[in-house]
Amino acid sequence: MIAHRPRRSAVCRQEGEYWTIIYEGTLFRVRDAKGLRYLAHLLCHPGERVQCDALVSAAGGGSSAAATSRERTRVAVTKRIKAALAKIATLHPALAQHLTMRIRTGYVCVYVGDADRHVSWQS
Description:
The protein is an alpha+beta fold. The protein has 5 helices and 7 strands.
């Protein structure tokens, strides 16, 4: 019989101009940025492949970014996610490492959940 490990919950929730993030028992706050909105969407939809232009729209990135060429949108999304990960790295290096290994960017973006950690993100 295989033992089923319970899912640990983590939080990535926008509260006004800041995001409250709780991971592995550590709470920290980060000022809002588009990259954090993109990350939050991916975390709350693990395994869901999201087109970069749809991610911009879903995360409230504005119509001007979505109206640009597909390549420019891909580059902008990737750059903003990397900037968000850099912010997180200064406050919670373990989370930044986890996300760096689990977030895939490109024309399609996805958060590949970690089966070993059984993390369930809440917004």
